[in-house]
Amino acid sequence: MDLRLKFNEDETNYDCFRPTYPDELFRDIIDYSSINGESNSLEIGIGTGQATKPILQTGCSVTAIELGDKLSNFVKNKFRKHSNFNVINTDFMTLPIKSNSYDLVYCATAFHWLPLEEGYRKVNDILKSGSTIALFWNHPFLNSSGACHKLKRCLSRKLLNWRDEVKSMISLKEFVRMVSVQEETISSYITEGKIIPDRVIETGFRNFYFFNEDTIKVMLKNLNGI
Is the pLDDT of residue 204 over 80? Predict the structure, then answer.
């Protein structure tokens, strides 16, 4: 099996547990590249789109390349309201792309899956002169010390336990897809105490919220009154 397709097996949980990226990172990329509503951007290996929305919000056109069919369909639905978004389900290295086409090419925690020399060469070819490449990764653990390895093992055990515990519950991501409300709005309601999750999982870098089906039914009735 192609290991690059491992994340394609369970796109919902992958989206739920995959860490996001700091706002400062996107501000730096956007400021440095000077992308705007007239720009064209390409995202390599979009996954479930953890690095996509800030770029879309600049108004630029975003074309995403994703090898996994389930992941491609996931982001197609996730960003369906954005007319400046398009996803192509294929391998970046085999896709014919016109030279000198993009103002920004970026890749979040995925470029290491490409043959690096050929990958850099292709990116250089499709970028316009003076344009920007942005490659970045999530590294939750800063070193390989013994304490760090113990923390990794502890966190992995907790995540596995939590996953079993919440497998019959509805995640925040799934809840957002059930209503016509942005995830940021629902998250603010949770912070303000207007919506109370049935289960909160704290990982140290991000909180995950889960709801029982009965709770969701009540919230769907009351959401318009918030």
Answer: no
What is the model's pLDDT at position 49? 95
Domain of residue 10: give its range. Answer: 3-136
Q: What is the mean pLDDT of residues 74-101?
A: 96
> Same domain, yes or no, for 74 and 173?
no
Q: What is the CATH number of the domain that holds 172?
A: 1.10.1660
Tokens of 161: 């336990």
> Do 160 and 212 sit in the same domain of this protein?
yes
What percent of the chain lies above the pLDDT cut of 70? 80
Residue 58: Cβ-neighbour burial (10 angstroms; 0-12, 13-18, 19+): buried
Q: Is the pLDDT score of 45 beyond 60?
A: yes
In the predicted structure, residue 226 carries a pLDDT above the cut 60 = no
Exposed e or buried b per residue across 184-215, where buried means at least 16 C-beta atoms within 10 angstroms of its C-beta = eebeebbeeeebebeeebeeeeeebbbbeeeb
Residues 22, 122 share a domain: yes
Asked which of 136, 164, 180 is the last residue of a domain, the reply is 136
Overall number of domains in the chain: 2
**Where is pLDDT greater, at 204 or 107?**
107
Dihedrals φ, ψ of 10, to 5°? -145, 75
